[in-house]
C-alpha cells in the first residue's frame, strides 16, 4: 500500500482516530492491522468467544495474553487491512455507528446538515455547504462555501474543501486542500495534497463491474463497484486533471494541466 510508506497503518486515521487508538473491550488485544467492528465485539461478548477470526481463519483479536483457538468465532464485519481500498471499508463501518453529532467548531446558519457530524475545534462550515450522511471533520478546517459532502467521509485537520467541490465517501488526511471545482469519490487522499481546480476522480465503470487495480504487477479485484483513487502525500495536480478509477498516485508526484491519469503514477524518486 504505497500511501502507507509515509503513513504507517497502525497510525492511519479511521474516522480521524488512529487505528491503534480505537477502543478495545477490557482485557482484549488485537492484531495491529485488524479492523474490528462494533457488531463483532458485541457478538463475541454474547457468545463468550475468546478469539475472533476472519473468514480465512486468521486471528484478528483475542481475550487475554494469547489467542484461545478452542473458543473462537468468525467475524462477519471485521477484517485485516491488507489493501489500501480497505481503509474505505473501515471508515464506512466506523462512521455508520456515529450516533450523534459533536460540534466544537462553527456552522453557518445557511449550511444544511442531514446526518451526524463531528466538527473539530477552530473548524468552520461556511454558507451553502450541504452535508449528507455521517461525516468527521478535524480541527482548523475550512469547509465551503458551496460544497457538497456525502457518504462516510473523514477529513483531517487543517484541510480546505472549497467552492463547488463534491466529496463522496472518502478519507482525506490533514493539511490537504481541495479548493474548487473538483470531485473526489470513494478515494483515499494523503497529507499536504493540493488539487488544482477542476480535478476529477472517476469512481465507476461503464459496465458496472467491480474495479480492478494493479498490485505488484497484477490486476486485483477490489470487490468495490465504486472506487476512485489512492493519492499519496504531497501530491499536486494541475488544473483539469482527470483520474481514471482505481489509479494510484505516489507521494510527491505531480500532474500537468489537463492531464488524463490512465495509469498509476510512481514517486518521482523511483524514476
Write up this protein.
There is one protein chain. This protein has about 270 residues and is mainly beta. The protein has 2 domains: about 1-80, no CATH class; about 100-270, UDP N-Acetylglucosamine Acyltransferase, domain 1 (3 Solenoid). Helices cover about 5% and strands about 35% of the residues. It has helices at about 40-45, 85-95, and strands at about 15, 15-20, 30, 35, 50-55, 60-65, 70-75, 80, 100-105, 105, 110-115, 115-120, 125, 130, 135, 140-145, 150, 155, 160-165, 165-170, 170, 175-180, 185, 190, 195, 200, 210-215, 220, 230, 235, 240-245, 245-250, 260. An 8-stranded parallel sheet has the order 9-12-15-18-21-24-29-32. A 7-stranded parallel sheet has the order 10-13-16-19-22-25-30, with no helix packed on it. The radius of gyration is 19 Å and the shape is globular. The chain starts with 12 loop residues before the first strand and ends in a 10-residue tail after the last strand.
CATH architecture of the largest domain: 3 Solenoid
Percentage of residues in strands: 25-35%
Report how far apart the termini are: 18 Å
Shape: globular
User: Radius of gyration, rounded?
Assistant: 19 Å
CATH superfamily caption of the largest domain: Hexapeptide repeat proteins
Query: What's the level 1 CATH class of the largest domain?
Result: Mainly Beta
Give the strand order, joined by hyphens, for the main sheet.
9-12-15-18-21-24-29-32
Average pLDDT metric: 95
Largest sheet: 8 strands, parallel
Domains (count): 2
In CATH terms, what is the fold-level topology of the largest domain?
UDP N-Acetylglucosamine Acyltransferase, domain 1
Helix content: under 10%
Name the structural class: mainly beta
Amino acid at each position: 500500500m504505497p500511501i502507507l510508506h509515509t503513513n504507517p497503518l497502525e497510525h492511519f486515521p479511521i474516522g480521524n482516530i488512529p487505528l491503534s487508538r480505537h477502543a478495545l473491550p477490557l482485557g482484549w488485544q488485537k492484531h495491529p492491522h485488524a479492523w474490528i467492528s462494533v457488531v463483532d465485539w458485541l457478538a463475541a461478548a454474547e457468545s463468550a468467544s475468546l478469539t475472533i477470526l476472519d473468514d480465512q481463519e486468521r486471528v484478528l483479536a483475542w481475550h487475554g495474553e494469547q489467542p484461545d483457538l478452542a473458543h473462537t468465532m468468525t467475524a462477519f464485519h471485521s477484517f485485516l487491512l491488507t489493501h489500501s481500498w480497505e481503509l474505505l471499508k473501515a471508515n464506512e463501518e466506523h462512521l455508520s455507528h456515529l450516533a450523534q453529532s459533536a460540534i466544537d467548531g462553527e456552522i453557518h446558519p445557511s449550511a444544511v446538515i442531514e446526518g451526524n457530524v463531528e466538527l473539530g475545534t477552530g473548524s468552520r462550515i461556511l454558507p451553502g455547504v450541504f452535508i449528507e450522511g455521517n461525516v468527521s471533520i478535524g480541527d482548523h478546517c475550512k469547509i465551503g462555501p458551496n460544497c457538497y459532502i456525502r457518504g462516510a467521509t473523514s477529513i483531517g485537520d487543517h484541510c480546505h474543501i472549497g467552492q463547488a467541490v463534491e466529496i463522496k465517501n472518502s478519507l482525506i488526511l490533514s493539511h490537504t486542500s481541495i479548493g474548487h471545482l473538483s470531485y473526489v469519490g470513494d478515494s483515499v487522499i494523503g497529507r499536504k495534497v493540493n488539487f488544482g481546480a477542476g480535478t476529477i476522480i472517476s469512481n465507476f465503470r461503464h459496465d458496472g463491474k467491480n474495479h480492478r487495480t494493479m498490485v505488484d504487477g497484477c490486476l486485483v479485484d477490489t470487490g468495490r463497484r465504486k472506487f476512485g483513487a489512492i493519492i499519496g502525500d504531497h501530491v499536486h495536480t494541475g488544473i483539469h486533471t482527470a483520474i481514471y478509477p482505481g489509479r494510484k498516485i505516489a507521494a510527491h508526484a505531480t500532474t500537468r494541466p489537463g492531464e488524463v491519469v490512465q495509469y498509476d503514477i510512481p514517486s518521482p524518486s523511483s524514476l
